[in-house]
Structure formats: structure tokens, C-alpha cells
Amino acid sequence: MKHLGEKNFSCAICGKSFWNKQNLSQHIKTHDGQKPFQCSKCDTRFTVKYSLINHRCRVGDKVEKCFICDVCGTSFASKPNLFQHILSHSDSKLYQCSICDKSFKHSSSLYKHQKSHHTRQFGCD
Q1: Which pLDDT score is estimated for 1?
Q2: Quick check: 95 and 106 in contact, CB under 8 A?
């Protein structure tokens, strides 16, 4: 798998991180209920395109690329999504807090932890 660098684009609402601004923009639609991507076979609607592709992989529709989890058979539209899913099958925690050394499976969990546990509150004296 090719190293994709840092996920520098984070959602201000939930902290989930993305490789590029386009993926972040698509993700933001999940918070406001937009579902612009529709399956042509069953009319199910999705907030982001890769969810539609994942759906098409699951229902056996021919899609250019489907990435399948060897552990449980779940299909994904991209390698990064498969990689994030594979972490759920292991005890590996790749994201470590630089303040308290607590570790997390997902970067979004680390972000939420740091925001809720290590955010300094400023008040009036």
C-alpha cells in the first residue's frame, strides 16, 4: 500500500480527518443530511460517492475496484477505507496522544480525545 502522507483536513464538527479538501467537503454533507448519490438499481441514496460505490460492491454490481476485507468480507471503494476498517479487527492503536501517551485506532478518536481532555480553558481572573 502506498503511503499517502498526513491527513491534514479535519472536520470542525466531529474531528474526522481526510487526505484532501474534496473528501472533507463530501464528508461535511453527512452532517446536514444531503444525499446526492443514488443507486440506479434500488434508489437508495448516499451522502458521499464512495458510500454508493461500497453499496454497489456489496450488492454485486460491477464496479471498477472493490477492496474486500479478508477477515469479514466487507467491501470498500478505496484502500484507505479498507485500511481504516482493518484496524477494527486488531488491537493496533497507531495514533498516540503526545500529551498523555494514550493511544487510539483512529485519528478522529485522537482528535476528539485531545479536544475534550487537553483543551485549555481560559476564563476571567
Answers
A1: 33
A2: yes
